[in-house]
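Our working data are protein records whose layout never changes between entries. The record below serves as our worked example for the rest of this section:
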Amino acid sequence: MKSRPDQEPVVSADVESTRNPHTVLRYTTLRLAIFLLALALLWLVRVRGLLLVALALVISGLASYVLLSRQRDAMSVQLSSATARRRTGVAGRRRTGQRCAL
């Protein structure tokens, strides 16, 4: 972790992804909670049937796009760093001639 005297400490993507390993689970749970909240609110307004589900999907999608941007960015960092680590591991095994165990 690098720090600058006038700003917050800079955290690399690898350090951030190991610090919080459950970002995908947190993002998915929050998306589901927002959907259920929208569903309940629309049900209280007496929207029923397929329209209820369709409106809840649209409203929750827009709300999560705005409200969960930080969680989405953290999840993206974690997934991309995991993919990069996996790719470098496979490339290293190919160079040394090791086989992957299934």
About this structure: The chain is about 75% helix and 0% strand.
